[in-house]
Amino acid sequence: MLQFNIRGENIEVTPAIREHIEKKVEKIERFFTDGANATAMVNLKTYNHNQTKVEVTIPMKNLTLRAEERHDDLYAAIDLIVSKLERQIRKYKTKVNRKFRDREGMGLAFAIAESEAQNASSAETDDEEDLKIVRTKQFDLKPMDEEEAVLQMNMLGHSFFVFTDAESNGTNIVYKRKDGSYGLIETTS
């Protein structure tokens, strides 16, 4: 069962908005075999009362779903977010199941896939000599291969992803290049 944490910036979260968000986002529960025991974190922002940005993040035990959308209409943005989340789930489920279908006990690979991550730290420079850390996050590095790491990175909408390589047990980084291809950084001790 999904729980909801809905926040609004420059917008009041009315009961009608809350009800619409819960009704629409709960539709993704049908993709989960055991039901989704997670909290959907929804952030609503308005800019000059003419454009709305909706962000939905659903961290689960083995997977983090995330999507954001900007639109002039708040309700349309919520509908687009749900469509994005459904596409992410279907794409990920298909790829993971295809990869693990021959392995014993992996028929429900989506539900037990080994991939969890959150945003890495981000830094902002005030001037050339002064670096200021504006956000710090911690996350567990789950063992996975490069393909799973790229899938997780794309689902989160990030340009890079840090993970533990399942074969070498080393910490690696996959990243999206400007030309749309992917790169891998392997660390050495």
Overview of the structural elements:
With 189 residues, the chain is α+β, with helices and mostly antiparallel strands. It folds into two domains: 2-100, Ribosome hibernation promotion factor-like (Double Stranded RNA Binding Domain, 2-Layer Sandwich), CATH 3.30.160.100; 114-186, SHC Adaptor Protein. The protein contains four helices and ten strands. Strands 1-2-3-4 form a four-stranded mixed beta sheet. The protein has a four-stranded mixed beta sheet with strand order 7-8-9-10, covered by helices on one side. Strands 5-6 form a two-stranded antiparallel sheet. Helix 1 (15-25) links the parallel strand 1 and strand 2 (38-47).
Going by CATH, what is the homologous superfamily of the largest domain?
Ribosome hibernation promotion factor-like
* N-end to C-end Cα span: 43 Å
The helix-and-strand class reads: alpha+beta
Helical residue percent band:
25-40%
**What general outline do the C-alpha atoms trace?**
globular
Pfam families: Ribosom_S30AE_C, Ribosomal_S30AE
Family: Belongs to the HPF/YfiA ribosome-associated protein family. Long HPF subfamily.
GO molecular function: ribosomal small subunit binding
Keywords: Cytoplasm, Translation regulation
